[in-house]
């Protein structure tokens, strides 16, 4: 039986420009240990880059504040993660926001519930914090919140979808620039379906695609299992032996190129999770921003 012929994909200058723009305008994530690499990162990323500072288990609020201050000092825009279930009181939230704004000129935070079974204080959900009105009172201008195109392993999908819309409504009612930043994924269709459904429902928040920077397959699988990444994890198995030997690297090139070909009306940019490879992702972004990559005929590209 004759196999259908697969058409090669012809590279174009339009695609190259769109890919470089996505790299230039993206945000990136770091953890507090990555602060030692910020001055080197300053030579790789443009001034004003949005840098999200994660809040790891057992991390103190002061460590987050210290990292945000260092991010600001090198010329980036710090956006701290705030897992609301770790806030033990209203006073803790107020003190954190006050210091973040005054010491690091933080204008936006990322609110997440956090994967903790119970709240240690008065806030069980992001909506609880938004209803309290503290962000606006402290002069914050924006808030990012989690989006889950592929659902969540511990929460029913209908509840996830209801919560996403509720968070956006509350944040926008408070006059905050609102962003839904997704969990990382490896295939575009679930993200685009999610984004299209939100737009069809009249949701006007910024929709940002969370991707993984270059990393080993073993690292990505470890984080994917921990974070509950959905069906798109099968894309990690595209290369023979990857899942069995756990060797080699996986980069975001094919996914970035796919999203670069999508109308910008459907979503609002990229965010890169770095999983301990902060500088490596910074270097990758610089090369892509500068156009130091070559499109191939298979829907991906290689970075020089």
From TrEMBL:
InterPro entries: FAD-linked_oxidoreductase-like, Mehydrof_redctse-like. Keywords: FAD, Flavoprotein, Oxidoreductase. Pfam families: MTHFR (PF02219). The keyword Flavoprotein applies. It catalyses: (6S)-5-methyl-5,6,7,8-tetrahydrofolate + NAD(+) = (6R)-5,10-methylene-5,6,7,8-tetrahydrofolate + NADH + H(+). Pathway: Amino-acid biosynthesis; L-methionine biosynthesis via de novo pathway; One-carbon metabolism; tetrahydrofolate interconversion. It comes from the Bacteria. Its cofactor is FAD. One of its GO terms (molecular function) is methylenetetrahydrofolate reductase [NAD(P)H] activity. Belongs to the methylenetetrahydrofolate reductase family. This is Methylenetetrahydrofolate reductase.
């Amino acid at each position: 039986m004759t196999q259908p012929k697969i058409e090669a994909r012809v590279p174009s200058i339009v695609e190259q420009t769109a890919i470089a723009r996505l790299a230039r305008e993206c945000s990136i994530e770091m953890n507090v240990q990555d602060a030692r690499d910020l001055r080197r990162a300053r030579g790789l990323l443009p001034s004003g880059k949005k840098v999200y500072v994660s809040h790891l288990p057992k991390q103190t609020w002061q460590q987050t504040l210290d990292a945000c201050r260092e991010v600001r000092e090198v010329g980036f825009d710090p956006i701290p993660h705030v897992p609301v279930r770790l806030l033990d009181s209203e006073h803790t939230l107020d003190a954190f926001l006050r210091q973040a704004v005054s010491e690091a000129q933080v204008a936006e935070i990322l609110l997440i519930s956090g994967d903790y079974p119970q709240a240690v204080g008065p806030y069980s959900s992001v909506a609880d914090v938004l209803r309290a009105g503290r962000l606006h009172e402290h002069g914050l201008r924006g808030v990012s919140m989690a989006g889950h195109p592929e659902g969540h392993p511990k929460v029913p999908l209908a509840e996830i979808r209801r919560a996403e819309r509720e968070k956006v409504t509350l944040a926008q009612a408070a006059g905050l620039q609102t962003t839904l930043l997704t969990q990382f994924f490896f295939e575009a269709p679930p993200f685009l379906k999610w984004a299209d459904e939100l737009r069809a429902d009249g949701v006007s928040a910024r929709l940002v695609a969370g991707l993984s920077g270059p990393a080993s397959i073993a690292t990505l699988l470890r984080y994917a299992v921990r974070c509950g990444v959905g069906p798109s994890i099968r894309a990690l198995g595209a290369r023979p032996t990857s899942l069995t030997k756990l060797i080699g690297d996986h980069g975001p090139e094919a996914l970035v190129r796919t999203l670069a070909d999508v109308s910008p009306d459907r979503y609002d940019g990229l965010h890169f999770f770095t999983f301990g490879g902060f500088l490596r992702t910074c270097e990758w972004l610089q090369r892509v921003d500068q156009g130091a990559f070559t499109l191939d005929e298979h829907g991906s590209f290689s970075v020089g």
